[in-house]
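# step 3/5: fold
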Amino acid sequence: MPRKIILNPEVLVGKPILEGTRISVEFVIGLLADGWSDEDILKNHPHLTREDILACLKYASELLQAEKVYPVPSTKVA
């Protein structure tokens, strides 16, 4: 069963983390962005599961889906 993503102000200043760890969603997403495979992450962090990695991706996806974007008029400098 994947861990929940929680916010705990006493761990990493309240950044989203995998419950029961000090591993932040940001850290896992950063590893993936740096080209680490699931296998690389699991080999270096054996206490994590593939479901934990997917939970981080889902959390990031949901956060981006909730993002509000407002158009800003462009300005030209002469």
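# step 4/5: annotate
The beta strands are 5-7, 16-18.
# step 5/5: archive (pending)
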